[in-house]
Input
Amino acid sequence: MLKFTTGRGLRLLLAAGICLGTLASVGAVSRTDGTASPMEAVVQQAEQKSPIQTEAELKAAEARQKRAPALLASRGLNREQKDALTARMGEDAFLFQLLEQGSLTRADLLWLTLPNSRSDRLERYRAWSAEHPKLTAEDVVLQVNMDQDQDFYSLIWEVADPSALDVLVNKHYILPAGYVPQLEVLGGKYGAGSLRPEAAQAFRAMADSARKDGISLRSVSAYRSYRQQTNTYNRYLKQNSQATVDTFSARPGHSEHQTGLALDINVASSRAHFEDTPAFAWLKEHCAEYGFILRYDLGQDSITGYRFEPWHYRYVGQEAAKTIMEQGITYEEYLALRPTWGQQVIIKEETPAASPLSISGSLK
Output
Protein backbone atom coordinates (compact mmCIF):
# COMPACT_ATOMS: atom_id res chain seq x y z
CA MET A 1 0.00 0.00 0.00
CA LEU A 2 2.83 2.37 0.89
CA LYS A 3 6.08 2.83 -0.97
CA PHE A 4 7.74 3.99 2.22
CA THR A 5 9.64 1.31 4.17
CA THR A 6 8.85 1.49 7.87
CA GLY A 7 12.18 0.18 9.11
CA ARG A 8 14.08 2.66 6.97
CA GLY A 9 11.84 5.47 8.10
CA LEU A 10 12.31 4.69 11.77
CA ARG A 11 16.07 4.55 11.38
CA LEU A 12 16.24 7.86 9.56
CA LEU A 13 13.79 9.63 11.84
CA LEU A 14 15.55 8.48 14.98
CA ALA A 15 18.91 9.42 13.51
CA ALA A 16 17.55 12.88 12.81
CA GLY A 17 16.95 13.32 16.52
CA ILE A 18 13.17 13.54 16.63
CA CYS A 19 12.31 14.05 20.28
CA LEU A 20 9.79 12.12 22.31
CA GLY A 21 6.47 13.79 22.84
CA THR A 22 2.81 13.65 21.98
CA LEU A 23 1.50 15.33 18.88
CA ALA A 24 0.45 18.84 19.65
CA SER A 25 -1.69 18.92 16.54
CA VAL A 26 -3.71 15.76 17.08
CA GLY A 27 -3.28 14.84 20.71
CA ALA A 28 -6.55 16.19 22.04
CA VAL A 29 -8.86 16.47 19.09
CA SER A 30 -12.55 15.67 19.16
CA ARG A 31 -14.69 14.04 16.54
CA THR A 32 -16.95 16.48 14.79
CA ASP A 33 -19.93 14.19 15.39
CA GLY A 34 -19.19 14.25 19.13
CA THR A 35 -18.75 10.50 19.45
CA ALA A 36 -15.82 8.24 20.31
CA SER A 37 -15.34 4.53 20.72
CA PRO A 38 -15.33 3.15 24.30
CA MET A 39 -11.55 2.65 24.17
CA GLU A 40 -10.94 6.13 22.75
CA ALA A 41 -13.18 7.80 25.32
CA VAL A 42 -11.47 6.21 28.32
CA VAL A 43 -7.97 6.72 26.99
CA GLN A 44 -8.60 10.34 26.06
CA GLN A 45 -9.82 11.00 29.59
CA ALA A 46 -6.74 9.32 31.06
CA GLU A 47 -4.38 11.20 28.77
CA GLN A 48 -5.71 14.57 29.95
CA LYS A 49 -3.98 14.03 33.28
CA SER A 50 -0.71 15.78 33.99
CA PRO A 51 2.61 13.87 33.74
CA ILE A 52 3.79 11.97 36.80
CA GLN A 53 4.80 14.58 39.37
CA THR A 54 3.67 13.89 42.93
CA GLU A 55 5.36 11.45 45.28
CA ALA A 56 2.25 9.28 45.33
CA GLU A 57 2.22 9.11 41.53
CA LEU A 58 5.91 8.24 41.48
CA LYS A 59 5.36 5.40 43.93
CA ALA A 60 2.38 4.12 41.96
CA ALA A 61 4.42 4.18 38.75
CA GLU A 62 7.24 2.33 40.44
CA ALA A 63 4.79 -0.30 41.70
CA ARG A 64 3.39 -0.79 38.19
CA GLN A 65 6.87 -1.23 36.75
CA LYS A 66 7.74 -3.83 39.39
CA ARG A 67 4.53 -5.74 38.76
CA ALA A 68 4.54 -5.55 34.95
CA PRO A 69 7.35 -8.07 34.20
CA ALA A 70 5.45 -10.86 35.95
CA LEU A 71 2.29 -10.07 34.00
CA LEU A 72 4.24 -10.08 30.74
CA ALA A 73 6.28 -13.20 31.46
CA SER A 74 4.01 -15.65 29.65
CA ARG A 75 3.04 -13.47 26.70
CA GLY A 76 5.66 -14.75 24.24
CA LEU A 77 7.65 -11.51 24.14
CA ASN A 78 11.39 -11.04 23.91
CA ARG A 79 13.47 -9.12 26.45
CA GLU A 80 13.43 -5.83 24.58
CA GLN A 81 9.69 -5.95 24.08
CA LYS A 82 9.09 -6.68 27.77
CA ASP A 83 11.43 -3.85 28.79
CA ALA A 84 9.61 -1.39 26.54
CA LEU A 85 6.21 -2.46 27.84
CA THR A 86 7.37 -2.31 31.46
CA ALA A 87 8.43 1.30 30.92
CA ARG A 88 5.14 2.14 29.24
CA MET A 89 3.06 0.51 31.97
CA GLY A 90 4.89 2.65 34.48
CA GLU A 91 3.70 5.72 32.63
CA ASP A 92 0.17 4.63 31.87
CA ALA A 93 -2.07 3.40 34.72
CA PHE A 94 -4.96 2.69 32.34
CA LEU A 95 -2.91 0.38 30.14
CA PHE A 96 -1.56 -1.36 33.21
CA GLN A 97 -5.14 -1.97 34.37
CA LEU A 98 -5.95 -3.55 31.01
CA LEU A 99 -2.85 -5.72 31.33
CA GLU A 100 -3.88 -6.88 34.80
CA GLN A 101 -7.36 -7.69 33.56
CA GLY A 102 -5.96 -9.74 30.69
CA SER A 103 -7.66 -7.46 28.16
CA LEU A 104 -4.57 -6.91 26.01
CA THR A 105 -3.84 -9.47 23.31
CA ARG A 106 -0.32 -10.34 22.22
CA ALA A 107 -0.90 -8.24 19.11
CA ASP A 108 -1.94 -5.31 21.31
CA LEU A 109 1.29 -5.68 23.27
CA LEU A 110 3.40 -5.76 20.12
CA TRP A 111 1.81 -2.53 18.93
CA LEU A 112 2.27 -0.91 22.33
CA THR A 113 6.01 -1.62 22.31
CA LEU A 114 6.38 0.75 19.38
CA PRO A 115 7.21 4.32 20.40
CA ASN A 116 4.79 5.81 17.86
CA SER A 117 1.80 3.64 18.86
CA ARG A 118 -1.29 5.31 20.31
CA SER A 119 -3.20 3.51 23.02
CA ASP A 120 -6.46 5.16 21.96
CA ARG A 121 -6.18 3.46 18.55
CA LEU A 122 -5.90 -0.16 19.70
CA GLU A 123 -9.35 -1.02 18.36
CA ARG A 124 -8.41 0.42 14.98
CA TYR A 125 -5.07 -1.44 14.96
CA ARG A 126 -7.01 -4.64 15.61
CA ALA A 127 -9.49 -4.02 12.80
CA TRP A 128 -6.82 -3.00 10.27
CA SER A 129 -4.63 -5.99 11.15
CA ALA A 130 -7.59 -8.34 10.72
CA GLU A 131 -8.24 -6.84 7.29
CA HIS A 132 -4.54 -6.98 6.34
CA PRO A 133 -3.09 -9.99 8.21
CA LYS A 134 0.25 -9.91 6.38
CA LEU A 135 1.19 -6.45 7.66
CA THR A 136 3.91 -6.18 10.30
CA ALA A 137 3.18 -4.53 13.63
CA GLU A 138 5.13 -1.47 12.49
CA ASP A 139 3.08 -1.12 9.31
CA VAL A 140 -0.24 -1.52 11.12
CA VAL A 141 0.64 1.29 13.54
CA LEU A 142 2.05 3.54 10.82
CA GLN A 143 -0.91 3.19 8.50
CA VAL A 144 -3.58 3.60 11.18
CA ASN A 145 -1.70 6.58 12.63
CA MET A 146 -1.98 8.12 9.16
CA ASP A 147 -5.70 7.24 9.10
CA GLN A 148 -5.17 4.98 6.11
CA ASP A 149 -7.83 2.72 7.62
CA GLN A 150 -10.45 5.43 7.02
CA ASP A 151 -11.81 6.78 3.75
CA PHE A 152 -11.07 10.44 3.14
CA TYR A 153 -13.56 12.74 4.91
CA SER A 154 -15.19 9.76 6.63
CA LEU A 155 -13.66 10.28 10.09
CA ILE A 156 -13.13 13.96 10.82
CA TRP A 157 -11.57 15.41 13.94
CA GLU A 158 -11.38 19.09 14.87
CA VAL A 159 -7.85 20.27 15.54
CA ALA A 160 -7.28 21.05 19.21
CA ASP A 161 -4.51 23.63 18.78
CA PRO A 162 -4.76 25.27 15.35
CA SER A 163 -1.89 27.64 16.17
CA ALA A 164 0.62 24.80 16.75
CA LEU A 165 3.49 24.89 14.28
CA ASP A 166 3.11 21.16 13.65
CA VAL A 167 -0.65 21.31 13.15
CA LEU A 168 -1.97 18.64 10.81
CA VAL A 169 -4.74 19.75 8.47
CA ASN A 170 -5.94 17.28 5.87
CA LYS A 171 -9.00 15.24 4.92
CA HIS A 172 -9.31 13.87 8.45
CA TYR A 173 -8.41 16.96 10.52
CA ILE A 174 -10.39 20.18 10.27
CA LEU A 175 -9.70 23.66 11.58
CA PRO A 176 -12.37 25.58 13.52
CA ALA A 177 -14.37 27.65 11.05
CA GLY A 178 -13.62 30.85 12.94
CA TYR A 179 -9.89 30.29 13.31
CA VAL A 180 -7.79 33.21 12.04
CA PRO A 181 -4.06 33.12 12.81
CA GLN A 182 -1.86 36.13 13.47
CA LEU A 183 -0.83 37.29 10.01
CA GLU A 184 1.88 39.36 8.40
CA VAL A 185 1.69 40.78 4.88
CA LEU A 186 4.43 39.39 2.67
CA GLY A 187 5.09 42.67 0.91
CA GLY A 188 5.15 43.86 -2.70
CA LYS A 189 8.18 42.13 -4.17
CA TYR A 190 7.32 38.86 -2.42
CA GLY A 191 3.90 38.48 -3.98
CA ALA A 192 0.32 38.34 -2.78
CA GLY A 193 -1.15 37.53 0.59
CA SER A 194 -0.16 37.06 4.21
CA LEU A 195 1.36 34.31 6.35
CA ARG A 196 2.01 33.80 10.02
CA PRO A 197 5.03 35.95 11.00
CA GLU A 198 7.51 33.07 11.28
CA ALA A 199 6.46 31.67 7.91
CA ALA A 200 6.43 35.09 6.27
CA GLN A 201 9.94 35.85 7.48
CA ALA A 202 11.17 32.45 6.31
CA PHE A 203 9.61 32.89 2.86
CA ARG A 204 11.14 36.33 2.41
CA ALA A 205 14.56 34.95 3.37
CA MET A 206 14.10 32.06 0.92
CA ALA A 207 13.01 34.38 -1.90
CA ASP A 208 15.97 36.69 -1.26
CA SER A 209 18.37 33.76 -1.41
CA ALA A 210 16.79 32.41 -4.58
CA ARG A 211 17.06 35.84 -6.21
CA LYS A 212 20.83 35.73 -5.73
CA ASP A 213 20.81 32.54 -7.80
CA GLY A 214 18.73 34.14 -10.52
CA ILE A 215 15.47 32.52 -9.37
CA SER A 216 12.26 34.48 -8.81
CA LEU A 217 9.90 33.21 -6.09
CA ARG A 218 6.62 34.99 -5.47
CA SER A 219 3.49 34.06 -3.58
CA VAL A 220 0.34 33.80 -5.70
CA SER A 221 -1.85 32.60 -2.82
CA ALA A 222 -1.13 32.43 0.89
CA TYR A 223 -3.64 32.64 3.80
CA ARG A 224 -7.24 31.84 2.88
CA SER A 225 -10.15 32.34 5.24
CA TYR A 226 -12.84 29.72 5.80
CA ARG A 227 -15.26 31.84 3.78
CA GLN A 228 -12.81 32.13 0.89
CA GLN A 229 -12.32 28.35 0.90
CA THR A 230 -16.09 27.87 0.77
CA ASN A 231 -16.46 30.15 -2.21
CA THR A 232 -13.55 28.53 -4.06
CA TYR A 233 -14.72 24.97 -3.41
CA ASN A 234 -18.30 25.74 -4.45
CA ARG A 235 -17.08 27.40 -7.64
CA TYR A 236 -15.16 24.26 -8.58
CA LEU A 237 -18.23 22.12 -7.84
CA LYS A 238 -20.13 23.97 -10.54
CA GLN A 239 -17.53 22.80 -13.06
CA ASN A 240 -16.64 19.27 -11.89
CA SER A 241 -17.93 16.36 -9.83
CA GLN A 242 -17.15 16.37 -6.12
CA ALA A 243 -14.90 13.33 -6.53
CA THR A 244 -12.78 15.24 -9.04
CA VAL A 245 -12.78 18.48 -7.06
CA ASP A 246 -11.61 16.65 -3.95
CA THR A 247 -8.40 15.66 -5.73
CA PHE A 248 -7.24 19.26 -6.08
CA SER A 249 -9.29 21.47 -3.75
CA ALA A 250 -9.78 21.18 0.01
CA ARG A 251 -13.23 21.29 1.52
CA PRO A 252 -13.80 24.31 3.79
CA GLY A 253 -11.78 24.03 7.00
CA HIS A 254 -9.52 21.35 5.58
CA SER A 255 -7.13 23.69 3.76
CA GLU A 256 -3.59 24.28 5.02
CA HIS A 257 -3.90 27.80 3.68
CA GLN A 258 -6.15 28.66 6.64
CA THR A 259 -3.27 27.93 9.03
CA GLY A 260 -1.24 30.79 7.62
CA LEU A 261 1.64 28.36 7.15
CA ALA A 262 1.13 27.40 3.49
CA LEU A 263 1.40 29.20 0.19
CA ASP A 264 1.41 28.62 -3.56
CA ILE A 265 4.60 29.80 -5.23
CA ASN A 266 4.70 31.39 -8.70
CA VAL A 267 1.76 29.40 -10.15
CA ALA A 268 -1.25 27.42 -8.99
CA SER A 269 -2.17 25.40 -12.05
CA SER A 270 -1.09 22.00 -13.30
CA ARG A 271 -1.23 23.36 -16.85
CA ALA A 272 1.75 25.63 -16.09
CA HIS A 273 4.05 22.62 -15.49
CA PHE A 274 5.91 24.38 -12.70
CA GLU A 275 7.74 21.11 -12.05
CA ASP A 276 9.75 21.68 -15.23
CA THR A 277 11.07 25.10 -14.22
CA PRO A 278 14.40 26.12 -12.63
CA ALA A 279 12.38 27.63 -9.77
CA PHE A 280 10.94 24.23 -8.84
CA ALA A 281 14.36 22.58 -9.01
CA TRP A 282 15.75 25.30 -6.72
CA LEU A 283 12.90 24.84 -4.25
CA LYS A 284 13.33 21.06 -4.12
CA GLU A 285 16.98 21.53 -3.24
CA HIS A 286 16.74 24.47 -0.85
CA CYS A 287 13.23 24.85 0.62
CA ALA A 288 14.03 22.75 3.72
CA GLU A 289 16.87 25.13 4.62
CA TYR A 290 14.16 27.71 5.30
CA GLY A 291 11.71 25.36 7.01
CA PHE A 292 9.43 24.62 4.03
CA ILE A 293 8.37 21.30 2.52
CA LEU A 294 6.81 20.35 -0.80
CA ARG A 295 3.50 19.29 0.71
CA TYR A 296 1.91 17.31 -2.14
CA ASP A 297 4.66 15.56 -4.07
CA LEU A 298 4.26 13.26 -7.05
CA GLY A 299 2.86 9.81 -6.27
CA GLN A 300 1.75 10.63 -2.72
CA ASP A 301 -1.95 11.15 -3.42
CA SER A 302 -2.99 7.87 -1.75
CA ILE A 303 -1.71 9.34 1.53
CA THR A 304 -2.32 13.08 1.17
CA GLY A 305 -5.50 12.83 -0.88
CA TYR A 306 -4.26 15.42 -3.39
CA ARG A 307 -2.65 15.13 -6.78
CA PHE A 308 0.82 16.54 -7.44
CA GLU A 309 1.05 20.25 -6.58
CA PRO A 310 4.63 21.37 -7.25
CA TRP A 311 3.72 24.93 -6.24
CA HIS A 312 2.28 24.23 -2.75
CA TYR A 313 4.73 24.62 0.16
CA ARG A 314 4.13 24.32 3.88
CA TYR A 315 6.23 25.84 6.67
CA VAL A 316 7.07 23.27 9.39
CA GLY A 317 10.42 24.53 10.71
CA GLN A 318 13.92 23.62 9.60
CA GLU A 319 14.42 20.38 11.57
CA ALA A 320 11.18 18.75 10.43
CA ALA A 321 11.57 20.06 6.88
CA LYS A 322 15.07 18.63 6.54
CA THR A 323 13.93 15.17 7.63
CA ILE A 324 10.86 15.17 5.38
CA MET A 325 12.60 16.44 2.26
CA GLU A 326 15.68 14.25 2.64
CA GLN A 327 13.55 11.12 3.04
CA GLY A 328 10.94 12.04 0.45
CA ILE A 329 8.07 11.25 2.81
CA THR A 330 4.77 12.98 3.40
CA TYR A 331 3.98 15.15 6.40
CA GLU A 332 1.45 12.49 7.43
CA GLU A 333 4.21 9.85 7.55
CA TYR A 334 6.50 12.13 9.50
CA LEU A 335 3.89 12.73 12.20
CA ALA A 336 2.73 9.10 12.21
CA LEU A 337 6.28 7.92 12.97
CA ARG A 338 6.94 10.46 15.68
CA PRO A 339 7.05 8.98 19.21
CA THR A 340 3.92 9.51 21.27
CA TRP A 341 5.07 8.11 24.60
CA GLY A 342 8.22 7.97 26.70
CA GLN A 343 8.14 11.59 27.88
CA GLN A 344 7.11 11.01 31.46
CA VAL A 345 9.42 10.00 34.28
CA ILE A 346 10.73 6.43 34.12
CA ILE A 347 11.20 5.07 37.63
CA LYS A 348 14.45 3.24 38.46
CA GLU A 349 15.11 2.10 34.92
CA GLU A 350 17.64 -0.71 35.24
CA THR A 351 17.72 -1.90 31.62
CA PRO A 352 18.16 0.04 28.38
CA ALA A 353 15.02 1.17 26.62
CA ALA A 354 14.04 -1.12 23.79
CA SER A 355 15.14 -0.20 20.31
CA PRO A 356 12.12 0.24 18.05
CA LEU A 357 14.13 -1.24 15.19
CA SER A 358 14.19 -4.64 16.86
CA ILE A 359 10.56 -4.68 17.97
CA SER A 360 8.68 -6.78 15.49
CA GLY A 361 7.00 -10.11 15.17
CA SER A 362 3.99 -11.91 13.88
CA LEU A 363 0.65 -10.80 15.23
CA LYS A 364 -0.62 -14.34 15.18
Confidence is low (pLDDT under 50) at residues 1-30, 34-49, 343-364. The chain has two domains: 6-152+340-353, 174-329. Strands lie at 30-31, 157-158, 173-174, 184-185, 194-195, 219-221, 262-265, 292-296, 309-315.
